[in-house]
Amino acid sequence: MKFNLLTPNLQQKLSFLNRAVSSKNQLPVxxxxxxxxxxxxIKLSSTDLEIGIEETCPAKIEEPGxxxxxxxxxxxxxxxxADETITMQTKESKLEVVxxxxxxxxxxxxxxxxxxxxxxxxxxxxxxxxxxxxREFSSVIFSASQDTTRPALSGVLVRKESQGFLLVATDxxxxxxxxxxxxxxTSGESVSFIIxxxxxxxxxxxxxxxxxxNMYVSKEQNQVLFEQGNTVLIGRLIEAEFPNYEKIIPSxxxxxxxxxxxxxxxxxxxxxxxxxxxxxxxxxxxxxxHITVSxxxxxxxxxxxxxxxxxxxEENEIAFNSRYLLDVLGNVEEKEMVFDMIGPLNPxxxxxxxxxxxxxxxxxxxxxx
Length: 369
Hints:
Elements: E1 2-6, H1 7-17, E2 32-38, E3 41-47, E4 51-58, E5 60-63, E6 66-70, H2 71-80, E7 85-91, E8 94-98, E9 103-107, E10 123-128, H3 130-141, E11 155-161, E12 164-170, E13 174-181, E14 184-185, E15 192-196, H4 197-204, E16 213-218, E17 223-228, E18 231-236, E19 255-260, H5 261-275, E20 281-286, E21 290-297, E22 301-313, E23 316-321, H6 322-331, E24 336-341, E25 348-352, E26 355-362
Antiparallel strand pairs: 1-5, 1-7, 2-3, 2-6, 3-4, 4-18, 7-8, 8-9, 10-14, 10-16, 11-12, 11-15, 12-13, 13-26, 16-17, 17-18, 19-22, 19-24, 20-21, 20-23, 21-22, 24-25, 25-26
């Protein structure tokens, strides 16, 4: 194998590829990146068996071939090189990386040991707008559980609808739901599957924010694949039953209050300082023209902040974990929001004002007095 390419073209690919490099030692080749020639490009691949990333990069191919190199070491070297042409070639079981003034030699592992990322792309479900994905998906994926012992809760339920998708994530204490519309969606039967939240987090890290993203699902391979430009992200679907989330969403409310999202976010941040010594509990008191956000503990003191708001219904109060409030207020971009509740022991629901496509539910905390 021998090829030439420009350093900047390779540098910008490697940082994203490293997000799929395994940090575990059970299979040494997973700590490597696969490099293979393909027409007038090189294809770079990484995987930790949960997700896989594939990048293509323009190059001048002199001799075809493929090999794997240690990911971290290779990335460190390439990132330190000047903007110039690199020549890479294999000699026996080594890879030489040569520039005008430098020469580096890497020990390699045979490409035969590197797992294949996917056999087929699968059925194309939709084309997603790159600039909309961050806003739409960020408001859902943070609600997925970090605990993988309940696999379904560590993923996002994706259900195909006539005009797009329904996205739902929950960790048992909170739930995010978003109807995501797409202009290019294939027709056909309604399908649903669970995608690991981590796959969506990596999707949001893909660099070309404006470029469209093609989404494919292969039920036979149990994989989802996102393709944006020269980047492919592959994830394994979660085989589990998603909980019946619909039964916990209240259908009617006795209190509704509208507010400025950024103002409430600032208030919760201020009160979270005092909430740290009281199990992160923050109380929301809903009155005629404002919300009083408060927290405190006997050890450190207390504080409260008033936020302008418009109340419809009875005055009431409810308490939540401050982290859950910070998450929802920090991951929604819209300016005006609405909070609906029934009572202090019932789930509270956050919505975007005049927008039925989003809903976020949080279970309350019972407080004394």
